[in-house]
Structures are given as structure tokens and as C-alpha cells.
Write a structure and sequence with these properties.
Elements lengths: L1 H5 L10 H25 L7 H21 L3 H17 L5 H18 L3 H21 L9 E7 L7 H10 E10 L7 E9 L5 H10 L3 E8 L7
Antiparallel strand pairs: 1-3, 1-4, 2-3
Helix pairs in contact: 2-3, 2-6, 3-5, 3-6, 4-5, 5-6
């Protein structure tokens, strides 16, 4: 079995198996590093765990694509044709769904071009990566427990009363949005909170509604930052 795997590429340009495995692992490690940096530096309100996972899987799959192509122009055109068919027949809105489609296409091409060792190694490593991402919930992050939207009828210079109330209940408070316009009375505010005690969320909402100048209070529990 080991001998078959070591000499399992029967294409016109057989693959160096140790170099192939090293290339796949290097692509996985580089993708992992990029994903970590993206998670640490992302500051927007829209965050996608699926996109983070794709940053890890896609480099490995692309490395396998380059190994399958091996400077073969015919295979390259075949890959483009397959992708054109898939894109025409399906609209994939999730980046990870697109990655799965890419994986099975490349595995089929590797098998069809007689690069059996490449197909086996690529399949096993891809399955390991997918399972690892699922088991560890990689890409999930929870910086805030709660999202609060409210209307502030008092002058903006008197926001200190509101901030003091939020500080008593939270470890971290971020004002994500502050909207006001000419001819519109008051200010619409949106806060992201990391609560000191998530069980006291209802108490926080009650205190906000009783605070002078506060109205239209809505609270949303933020289980996980994700892109809608």
C-alpha cells in the first residue's frame, strides 16, 4: 500500500510525493496564519466565520490545483470549463460552500488525470482540515454579549449619565452607531456591550428604560459576531 502511494501518480508528469505532501502542508500552515491575522485585525461590524474557514481551506485546494495542472494547458482549460458549468447552474452564497465545490472538482480532476497519490493525499488532508474547523469552531469569536439600540432625547453633552449606567453593567462598551440629523429631535444610539454578568441583562434593560431621556430601548443577545 505504501509503495502504491509512493508511486501512485501515473500521469505523464508523475508527482514527487514527499514534495507534494510538503506543499500541501505548507499551504495549510500559511492559510492558517493569514486567518489568525484576519481574526485579530478585523474591526468591522460584519464578520463571517465561514470566510475565515475558507481562508484556511482554499490555499490547500489551490496548491492541489497547481499540482494537478502541472503546466498542462489542456487540463487548465478543462478546469475552467467545469467551473463555468458549476457557476452557471448554481449560485453559491456561502464561501465555504464554494470551497467544498472547489474541493470535489479538483479531486475529480486529480483522479481523472491519473494522479492517484495527489488525490488521496489532498482528500485526506482536506477532510482533516474540514473536521478540524468544525470540531474547534475555528473562526468564532465573541467580543460582546449584547447589542443595545435606543433613542436619546436629551442633549448629546449629557450622555455621561447613560455611559455611567452602561459602565456599571459592562466590562467593555463600544458605541457602534450615533445618528442624528437636522429637524430630528434626539439621537439614535447603538452600543455593543461585554456584560459583567450576562444573567443581569433584563435588569440593565429595565434601568435603561427608567433613565430620563431614554426611549425605544431594544436589546439583542449577541451569541456570535457573524455576517448576516
Amino acid at each position: 500500500m505504501i509503495d502504491f502511494f509512493s508511486h501512485g501518480d501515473f500521469a505523464s508528469a508523475p508527482m514527487n510525493v514527499p514534495a507534494m505532501i510538503m506543499g500541501l502542508l505548507l499551504a495549510f500552515a500559511c492559510g492558517h496564519a493569514v486567518a489568525w491575522i484576519y481574526m485579530l485585525t478585523h474591526t468591522g461590524l460584519s464578520y463571517s466565520k465561514s470566510f475565515v474557514n475558507s481562508l484556511i481551506v482554499i490555499p490547500t485546494v489551490v496548491a492541489m490545483v497547481m499540482m494537478v495542472l502541472s503546466n498542462n494547458i489542456v487540463t487548465a482549460f478543462g478546469l475552467m470549463a467545469v467551473f463555468a458549468i458549476v457557476r452557471f447552474r448554481n449560485i453559491l452564497r456561502d464561501t465555504l460552500d464554494t470551497t467544498y465545490i472547489l474541493v470535489v472538482i479538483v479531486l475529480g480532476m486529480a483522479s481523472g488525470t491519473l494522479k492517484f497519490s495527489t488525490a488521496i493525499a489532498g482528500c485526506l488532508l482536506t477532510l482533516f482540515i474540514m473536521t478540524y474547523l468544525w470540531a474547534t469552531a475555528f473562526g468564532s469569536r465573541q467580543r460582546y454579549d449584547m447589542i443595545i439600540n435606543l433613542h436619546w432625547a436629551r442633549p448629546v453633552t449629557e450622555l455621561q449619565d447613560l455611559r455611567s449606567l452602561l459602565f456599571r453593567h459592562s466590562l467593555r462598551t463600544i458605541c457602534a452607531s450615533q445618528r442624528s440629523s437636522e429637524g430630528y429631535e434626539g439621537t439614535d444610539l447603538s452600543y455593543r456591550l461585554l456584560l459583567r454578568d450576562p444573567e443581569r441583562m433584563d435588569q440593565l434593560l429595565m434601568e435603561l428604560r427608567s433613565l430620563q431621556g431614554v426611549s425605544r430601548v431594544t436589546g439583542l443577545k449577541a451569541e456570535e459576531e457573524s455576517e448576516v
